[in-house]
Amino acid sequence: MATKNVDLRHFTGFKSLTLLCLFLLYAPLIIVMVYSFNDSNSITRWNTVSLRWYYDLFYGVDAPKFKTAAINSVSIAVMAAISATVIATMAATAMLRAGSFRGKSVSFALINLPLMVPEIVTAVATLIFFSAIGFTTGYLTILIAHIVFCIPFAYLPIAARMQGIEDVYEQAAQDLYATRFQAFRLILLPLMAPGIISGFLLAFIISLDDFIITNFVKGAGVETLPTVIFGAVKQGIKPNIMAISTLLLAVSVGFVALSYFVGRMGEKANPTTTKQGD
Amino acid sequence: MSKDKEISVDIQNVTKSFGAFTALNGVSLDIRDNEFFTLLGPSGCGKTTLLRLIAGFEEVTNGAIHLYGQNIADLLPNERPINTVFQQYALFPHMNVTDNVMFGLLRLGHDTSKAKARVGEVLELVRLSDFADRMPSQLSGGQQQRVALARALAPSPKVLLLDEPLSALDLKLRQAVRLELKQIQVQTGITFIFVTHDQEEALTMSDRIAVLEGGRVQQVGSAREIYEAPENKFVADFIGETNLIDVTVSNVEKRKGSCVLPGGAQIICSAAEGALVGSGHLSIRPERIKITASGKGMLEGKTVRHIYLGTDLHIEVSLTSGSRVTVRMQNSTQIKIPNVGQSVGLDFEASSARLLVD
User: Which of A93, A273, B275, B338 is the most exposed place for a label (fewest CB within 10 A)?
Assistant: First the structure.
C-alpha cells in the first residue's frame, strides 16, 4: 500500500497530465502528416486520401525550387557532418587520451558552449563576422557555419563512447610494438566506430534541419529545405508544404533512430561493460 | 664480471613519485636471465608501478633500469622487447584469437604466412588451437587468460611481465594454471616477472621472490629462504602464517641469537640481519609447534579453541604470559587433540625459530 502511494503512476492527475503533454507535442505533427495525404486544395477541409501533393512536390510548379533546395540541404549536411565528425573525433582524442594539459577544462567548455548559446546570437554573430571579413554569403558560408555548429553535436556521442573504452587496450597495442598512431588506428578507432557513426548521423540531421543560422548566412538566391519551406509558408500555406514537411520529418526520425540503434549496438559490444569483475 | 651477462633486468635504486606520493622508494633488484621472478606484496606496495616502469608506461623519477646492459629509459613501450600479460587481459574485442595473437608479430614486420605459423605454435603451447577463430567474448575467463599469454609470448620477448594474471580466475583453475605457467616459462626460457599479492602463488612458481611493502624491497630470496628465514616482521607475517613471541635477547653473535622465552626457557636460534640485544620477536610457524603434556615443552599455556580446516586443525593456545599461539596439526585420527581449557606444553626445535628485526 505504502509503496503504491510513492509510485509516480498513482499520483492524482498523472494520467491526464501525461495525455495532455503527449497531445500538445504530437497532435500538430500527426495532423500535418495526415493532411499531407489529403486530396484537396484546402489545408483544413478533408476530402479523400491521395498522393496528389507528393506528386505536386516532384512534378508541380514548385518542383524545381524544392529540388535545388533539397540538393543544397543534403550536400551541405553530408559535407558538414563529415567535417564536424572528423574535427570532433580529433577533439575527443585530445580531451580524453592526451592526459591532462593546460586549458583542458576551458577547451571542454569551448567545445560544448555552442549548445548553450542562443542560436539567434550565433546567427547574427556569424553574419557580422562574414561581412566584416568581406566574405560573400552563399553556399560556402552556409557550409562553414554548419560545420561549426555541428561539432558539439558530433562530439557528444563520440566522447561518450571513447570514455567507455579503457586505455588498457591502447597500452596493450603499444606493448605489442604498435606506435601510438597504429594503436589509435588499429584499436581505438574501430572500437569507437559506433560512437563516430552515431555522431555523424546526429550532425547530419542537425545540419539538415537548421533554419535560423542558415537563413542569416545564406545570402540571396541560395535556399535549403527549411528556408524554402519558410519562404513558401510566408506566401500562404499550400498543402504541398505539408507533404514536404512530412518527408523531412520521416528522414529526421529515420536518422535519429539509426543513430540511437548504432549507439546501442556499440554499447552491447562494448568491451568494458562485458566480462570481468576484478 | 661474468655475472653481468646473466642479469636480465637490472633495477638500480629506482624511485617513482606521483606528486607527493612516493610509490617506489630506492628499489634495487637484479633479475636474472631465464628466471621466474615474482614481485610479491599487498595492494599499494608499488609492485604494479614497478612493472609499468619496466614496460615503459611510466617514467622513473630517479634511478635507472637496464635491460641486458642497455639503459631503457628513452625507449617507448613499443621499442622495448618486453611484453605484458595484463590483469584484465585487454584482448582486442574486435579481433578474433588469431588476429589478437598475430598483432605483435605484424607490428614487428613479420610477413603474414610466417606470423600465422608462429600463432599456430603459441596457440598449441597454451592448448587453444581449436579456438583460433573465436572472438574474445566467446571465451571463458581461463581461455581469455591463455590467449593473453599467447599474445604476449608470440613475439618471443626477452622479458615477459605478468600483472596478477590469475586473480580473475576461480581457485581450482588458478591452481592448474600456476603449474602450466611455470612449465611454459621453463619451456620457452623467457625471463618472467610475475606480480601478485597471493603468497601461495608466489611460493609455488617462483625461482626467486622480492617482497615489497611501502615502496621498498623487504627481502629477496627463494621461496624457501623467504619462508624459513624472513628478515623482518612484515615478511614473516605476510608469507604464510606465523606466531610472533616476545622474547628477551641476551646475546647476538654470528647471526645466532640467544633468547629467553616467556616461561624462562632459553634457546639459541638463527637471527635476522640487524637483530639486537634487548627485547625482540621470535617467529615460529604454526606447523612447527607440537603440543605436549603440560610442563614438558618450551612454552606453557591453555587451549582456547579448535578451528577445523579440513586437512588441518588449528589449535589456539593462550600462553601464561597472555599472548596467543596457533598450532597447526594434521587432521589425522592418530593425533590426540587437547580439550578446550586443558593445560598444555608447546614444544619446537630451535632450528624452527627465527629472531626478527622489528
Answer: A273
